[in-house]
């Protein structure tokens, strides 16, 4: 079946995107050249010429790069070719795509345009393929092509029929699982401490302004005015708090306001952001593991963050954020949501504790952080010797908590690790998704009949999770469990 | 140590000599660099503490040399086991910390037999098994065994899983 493959250009808005980038790049230099610099200086006219020439070249570059960048969607791969002088081709086989992320800046919205990033499990700079601007219909087309891959094959196979699959074979129905209410959002804005975010922003803004103008005199006046009486101090603090909270609320509403988790039989869709919209769509099969994370505050308030472990694009933090389902879910809801989204995943709350020896082992481990801290402390500031004792007690308390809170379970096709003392994380994955296992035993662990077990999941390139101080009998069980992996996987027919 | 699946194949006994020689050379090179630095330190009257640090490093190198030339190699050899079947590669090794790896054949990406100058002298090969995570090595196998193993793994690893 030879399909005609069309080389397509991106939406012209790609140029707008690049243009905004250009403005960001040249704004400060422009300000310097045209406003701040002493106009009498001999160099300034040259600088102006160079600056304008640079901007013109960049502008041409934007247009040419749009003309020269084409992408094509083939049967089994997405291909992109860019470059003005040197052609650069990048092909991503559809089967390697783990998830699709989109980002729609405010100025793309009226035109129904978005940028699409295909995230693969390959490591390095070929890890993700970004199509900077396409129409929404086009995006849907790409999404369908990628996420539906091998669906036909699958229908041919006589599989154990899942109830869910029978219902969904005709029209995949999209169901919305979660949308935060206003109350949820207000809670989130306090919990995420987003009101604190105003501080670095103020500091940064202040520094920028200070670079350009001399403010010291004015500031001194203001400072003295505020400090002149308790009344003004209190008022200032009050105003600051109001601004900070208001800022936090606005920020949270912009970030999580339009949050939505939806799914159909095959995929999960996460949408977030009010002004700039980001989405993640992922095939359920491509979720390698699920992690439930809590910090001490969330633990106290019984809230949990659910993370889908999957490949992330290089945008780093943002991408890690989008992999998380709503970070402030009530714990019960977090578990029920997982059951709704992944009927195949069976999370059990009856997990095994670590044996007594595990506590001895945890206590016997060398407290390196404390050692180094103490040596440095006694060297530099011996008068603060008591800090060393405080850290020592804290270290061993944390170890005790970690022992107390640790749980593990190896059952059916699943393995579950629960780790952490004050923070906690519960990691669950299924045998098929585990691409390698490791059991290690240090000298001391050998004496205490303990082991450390580790599993490897495929993200980009991999994610390694380990659990310390597992009794040796469980480690044996773990290996035996892993050897049954061959029953779960299906092998390709060897065609050669 | 863990199960009936415990791998049983051993590597060549000559591995002990190979490790002894290579660790000896490595430590010798490092020691001579340190000696050079110490000499330079006295000659050009560097800060005293630099020379102290260099002497401490030399001492540590001698201790580490003693361990990795005389004590470690026979033990490493003693505990090295590997085993393959159609479905898994299994490796166990380690002196103080003992590790046990299980890698499904379907997840093996490449396999190669490699040989450095010392291994060449003994006509031995190291099998390198590449996975998504990084690679695993089975050190010091006799030529015939190494090639056989490489071909076996390559053969089993040809089959891939249906990714769903």
From TrEMBL, chain A:
Coiled coil: none annotated. Keywords: Membrane, Transmembrane, Transmembrane helix. The chain crosses the membrane at residues 20-37, 43-67, 185-206, 226-250, 359-378, 384-401. InterPro entries: UCP026631 (IPR014529), YdbS-like_PH (IPR005182). Pfam families: bPH_2. PANTHER family: UPF0699 TRANSMEMBRANE PROTEIN YDBS, UPF0699 TRANSMEMBRANE PROTEIN YDBT. This is YdbS-like PH domain-containing protein. The lineage of its organism: Bacteria, Bacillati, Bacillota, Bacilli, Bacillales.
TrEMBL record, chain B:
The chain crosses the membrane at residues 21-40, 46-71. Keywords: Membrane, Transmembrane, Transmembrane helix. The keyword Membrane applies. The keyword Membrane applies. Residues 77-153 form the YdbS-like PH domain. InterPro entries: YdbS-like_PH. PANTHER family: UPF0699 TRANSMEMBRANE PROTEIN YDBS, UPF0699 TRANSMEMBRANE PROTEIN YDBT. This is Membrane protein. The gene is ydbS.
């Amino acid at each position: 079946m030879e399909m005609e493959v069309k080389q397509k250009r991106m939406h012209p808005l790609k140029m707008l995107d690049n243009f905004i980038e250009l403005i960001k790049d040249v704004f400060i230099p422009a300000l310097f050249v045209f406003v701040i610099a002493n106009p009498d200086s001999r160099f300034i006219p040259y600088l102006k010429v160079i600056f304008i020439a640079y901007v013109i070249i960049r502008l041409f570059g934007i247009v040419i790069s749009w003309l020269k960048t084409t992408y094509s969607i083939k049967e089994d791969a997405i291909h992109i070719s860019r470059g003005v002088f040197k052609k650069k081709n990048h092909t991503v086989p559809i089967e390697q795509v783990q998830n699709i992320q989109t980002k729609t800046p405010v100025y793309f919205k009226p035109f129904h345009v978005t940028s699409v990033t295909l995230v693969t499990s390959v490591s390095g700079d070929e890890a993700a393929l970004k199509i900077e601007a396409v129409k929404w219909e086009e995006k849907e087309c790409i999404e369908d092509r990628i996420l539906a891959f091998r669906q036909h094959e699958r229908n041919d196979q006589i599989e154990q029929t899942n109830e869910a699959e029978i219902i969904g074979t005709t029209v995949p129905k999209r169901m919305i699982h979660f949308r935060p209410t206003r109350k949820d959002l207000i809670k989130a804005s306090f919990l995420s401490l987003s009101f604190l975010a105003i501080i670095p922003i103020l500091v940064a803004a202040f520094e920028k302004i200070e670079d350009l103008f001399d403010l010291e005199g004015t500031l001194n006046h203001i400072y003295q005015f505020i400090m002149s009486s308790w009344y003004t101090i209190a008022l200032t603090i009050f105003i600051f708090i109001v601004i900070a909270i208001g800022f936090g609320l606005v920020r949270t509403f912009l970030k999580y306001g339009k949050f939505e988790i939806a799914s159909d039989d095959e995929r999960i869709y996460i949408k977030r952001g009010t002004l700039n919209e980001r989405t993640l769509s992922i095939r359920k099969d491509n979720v390698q593991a699920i992690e439930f994370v809590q910090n001490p505050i969330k633990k106290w308030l019984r809230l949990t963050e659910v993370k889908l472990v999957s490949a992330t694009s290089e945008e780093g933090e943002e991408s890690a954020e989008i992999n998380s389902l709503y970070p402030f879910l009530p714990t019960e809801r977090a578990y029920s949501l997982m059951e709704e989204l992944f009927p195949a995943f069976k999370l059990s709350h009856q997990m095994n504790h670590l044996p007594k020896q595990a506590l001895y082992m945890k206590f016997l481990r060398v407290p390196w952080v404390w050692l180094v801290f103490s040596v440095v402390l006694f060297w530099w500031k011996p008068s603060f010797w008591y800090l060393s004792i405080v850290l020592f007690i804290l270290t061993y308390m944390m170890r005790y908590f970690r022992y107390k809170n640790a749980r593990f379970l190896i059952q059916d096709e699943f393995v579950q690790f629960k780790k952490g003392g004050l923070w906690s994380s519960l990691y669950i994955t299924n045998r098929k998704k585990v691409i390698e296992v490791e059991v290690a035993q240090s000298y001391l662990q050998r004496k205490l009949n303990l082991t450390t077990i580790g599993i490897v999941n495929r993200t980009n390139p991999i994610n390694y999770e380990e659990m310390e101080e597992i009794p040796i009998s469980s480690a044996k069980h773990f290996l035996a469990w892993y050897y049954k992996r061959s029953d779960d996987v299906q092998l390709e027919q060897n065609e050669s | 140590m863990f199960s009936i699946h415990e791998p049983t194949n051993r590597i060549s006994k000559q591995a002990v000599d190979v490790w002894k020689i290579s660790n000896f050379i490595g430590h010798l090179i490092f020691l001579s660099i340190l000696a050079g630095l110490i000499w330079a330190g006295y000659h050009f009257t560097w800060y005293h503490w630099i020379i102290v640090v260099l002497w401490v490093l030399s001492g540590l190198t001698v201790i580490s040399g003693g361990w990795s030339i005389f004590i470690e190699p026979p033990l490493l050899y003693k505990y090295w086991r590997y085993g393959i079947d159609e479905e898994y590669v299994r490796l166990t090794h380690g002196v103080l910390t003992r590790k046990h790896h299980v890698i499904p054949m379907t997840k093996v990406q490449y396999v190669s037999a490699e040989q450095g100058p010392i291994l060449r002298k003994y006509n031995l090969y190291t099998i390198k098994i590449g996975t998504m995570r990084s690679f695993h090595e089975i050190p010091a196998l006799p030529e015939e065994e190494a090639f056989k193993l490489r071909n076996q793994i390559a053969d089993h690893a040809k089959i891939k899983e249906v990714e769903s």
